[in-house]
Structure formats: C-alpha cells, structure tokens
Design goal:
The structure is a homodimer. By secondary structure, chain A is mainly α. Chain A has two domains: 1-50, Homeodomain-like (Arc Repressor Mutant, subunit A); 58-192, Tetracycline Repressor, domain 2 (Orthogonal Bundle). The first copy, chain A, is 77% helix and 0% strand. Chain A has nine helices and no strands. Chain A is elongated. At the A-B interface, helix 6, helix 7, helix 8 and helix 9 of A face helix 6, helix 7, helix 8 and helix 9 of B. The first copy, chain A, binds a DNA duplex through helix 3. Chains A, B: This is TetR family transcriptional regulator. Chains A, B: Pfam families: TetR_C_6, TetR_N. Chains A, B: InterPro entries: BetI_C, Homeodomain-like_sf, HTH-type_TetR-like_transc_reg, HTH_TetR, Tet_transcr_reg_TetR-rel_C_sf.
DNA sequence: TCCGTCTCGTAACAAGCGTTACGATAACAT
DNA sequence: ATGTTATCGTAACGCTTGTTACGAGACGGA
C-alpha cells in the first residue's frame, strides 16, 4: 500500500480487504492481521486508520451498502420502464456470478457479526428498511392501481425471495445456477401480475 | 450437569448450549468456554464429549437439522390437504416468534461458520437440497397438473422467500411482524395458484 | 541543510483462545 | 469393604487475538 495515498482511499482499500477475508475465510478468521495481509500492509496501518477492529468492520459495512446502493440506482435510472426497473433491481440482488456470490457471503458475514455489535445491527436495519422502501416504490410504480397493502406485501415477498435465493446460491452454486434464479424471479413477477 | 446423564443426552444439552450462545452472543463469541458456561459445566466435560470444537459445532448443526425435520414432518402429516401441508411447512420456516427468530439467527450463524468449515458447508448443502426436494414434492402434490419445471421454479421461489423473510425478521422483528410475514406467504401462494 | 511533523512498520503486551495433562471423586464389580 | 475404572473438574500449555508503544524514515518549511 503506497505511502502517499489519501486516507479515504486507504480506508476503502482496507474495507475491500475486509470483504475479501470475510468472503473467503469467514467471520471467524476476520482478524486485523488477516485484513492487513489481504490489503498488503501491516496491522500498524490498520490501527492508525481505525481506532479499533469494530470501527474497521463498521466502515466496511457502510461502504458495502454504498456500493450496492450506487449499483441499484444506476440500474433503476437506466431502466426503460417501471417494471423493467423492478426486475433489474431485484435481479442484481441475486447471486448469479462470482462477484455477487461473494457479496452474498460477505453480506451474511456482516449479518452474523451484527449479533455481537449493536451498531452493526442498527446499520443493517436502516439499510434494509431503505431497501424495502425502494422496492415498495418500484412495485407501486409498476402497478399503480394496487392498494398500498398489496404493494407492501408483494414487495416484501420479492425482497425476501431475492435475499433467500442469494443466500442459497452463495452456499451451493451448483444447485442454484443463474438461470434457475432468474426463472424463479420471472415466475414470481409474472404470477404477481408484474411481468414485463 | 448431572454426572449420570448418558452421553447422548449430554451431547444434546451441549448442542443446545451451542444454539444459545450462537443465537445470543454470535459466532465470534462462540467459544468452548462460553458453551460450557451456557451448559452449566466446564470445558473439561465439553472436551471429553467431543474431540474438538469443530466436532461440537457439527454435532449441534446436525441436531438442529434433525429438530426442524421432525417438526416439518409432523406438520406435514397432520395437514388436511396437500395445499394446507405446503402452507404449514413453509410457515414454520418463518421467524414469527421468539423461538423461530432465535432459530433463524442460529441458522445464519452456522451458515457463516460454514465458510471456514468444509464439512459444515457440506451438511448445509445436503440439508438444503433435501428441504428443496420436500417442498418440490409438496408443490407437486398441491398442483398435480403442473409441468415439472414450473413445480421446481415455484418451489424455489417459495423456499427462498421463506428463508429471506426469516432472516429479515430475525434481524429486525419490529419491521417484520408475524402478520406481515404470513400475508406475504399467503399472497405468494395465492398468486402462484396454490391458495387453499 | 536542518529540524519538526506526520506516516506507518516493528515489536511487545495482556487477555483469551483451543487443547492437553493430570488428579480427585464417583460408580461399580468383587 | 476394597480395588478398579470411568467421569469430569482444575490448571496449565502454546498460540493467536486486539491493542499499544516506540522508533525509523519520508515529507515540508525555514
């Protein structure tokens, strides 16, 4: 890690190292030393950038959320129609390639870590509620005639399905190939009356 | 822990202690000492019952699977119809009370631990595939006229949805109360054409 | 060029970890 | 009642952990 990089870039690089270790070695081996090794520096730099391990994890969690939010907003703005936006946004939540599988493992690692960290669970709730509101808004735009309760219920069904499928696929990629996940999503959208 | 209890009972008690620690303190604090304390014994007994920590976790994971399997089979056999069986079996997978929320946290803890343990991930895959086959069979019985691919796709959508909803509700019970989860499940079943 | 400051690697610390060795005590056969 | 065996708690081991202290070296102003 170069000596002249600015703090924000270093913090981001360390956060990426956190994701790497969490995704490849798991929460139990997510140590400060392992993160430093993955980032190509020493524990000294890590502890100069963050007051403690907790802060490092929280920053990495925050940046992961920002990353997925940016991706989702880009997909949403590029979509040609509300229903296409809904499908596209849900689709990116699946685990259909190496990167998204990795993200899903990391996401679950943070969720498991949140059991022992009040601020992590608070971050999870805030992010998850924002995600839910976004999908509710997309469902509402895709089916303007629906009553609010149906919008909310269907949105919940869709985000839960995407999250569960990502977890399954991350843990057993052979059993849940991309096509099976996409068929699952399309079948659900069609059945709800939200097909394109 | 009494001195005359047989080995199987002790192993089960220690497994329950593993679930307790995993659900209340998280994977990072799931130490042999914490498990012993939760079981009301010392690390000596734990290490006399299991060759190492890994074996303890694997046994606890196995017993958790057996527990949910027994519950699911009882629900299935008691159901008055295939569609009622399907709904009942999926409903038990949600996190609608303190016990099932706890189970969901434990389940995710084991999944996070599986990243660093090949046998745990193998156990997860075997159990998950069996679970998927069971729900496929139930969907097939609930809609005998469906082609196999639709049965498989809808079954995947349903188990993914239940799993995701359980994860959400375990991490944020206030945002995902039991009624919201049940409405979500019923709306999905109805939309798929599997309503009772 | 020299000095102060800031960066970050090195090395150490106490605490906690999984695991092992050993001894005390209970249970049982004789 | 006594000797044997199995059970399990105690205490220690080596190791890894998060964290701290300190020093070497790069950078910038005078």
């Amino acid at each position: 890690m170069s000596r002249t990089a600015d703090r924000a870039a270093q913090e981001a690089a360390l956060s990426r190292a956190v994701w790497d270790v969490l995704g490849e070695q798991g929460l139990e081996r997510l140590t400060v030393r392992a993160v430093a090794a993955a980032a190509g520096c020493t524990t000294g730099l890590v502890m100069h950038r963050f007051p403690n391990r907790q802060a490092l994890l929280r920053h990495a969690r925050h940046l992961l959320h920002e990353k997925t939010r940016a991706r989702v907003e880009a997909l949403e703005s590029e979509a040609p129609s509300p229903r296409a936006a809904l499908r596209s946004v849900l689709r990116q939540g699946l685990a259909t390639d190496a990167e998204t599988r990795h993200e899903s493992v990391v996401w679950m690692g943070f969720l498991a870590a949140a059991v022992a960290d009040d601020e992590l669970v608070e971050m999870h709730r805030a992010n998850n509620r924002a995600w839910r509101r976004r999908v509710e808004r997309l469902v509402g735009a895709a089916a303007p005639e629906w009553p609010a309760e149906r919008v909310s219920t269907v949105a919940l069904g869709l985000i839960a399905m995407a999250e569960g499928a990502a977890a399954f696929a991350a843990a057993d990629p052979e059993a849940y190939p991309p096509r099976a996940q996409e068929r699952m999503l399309d079948e659900a959208l069609t059945s709800y009356g939200l097909g394109v």
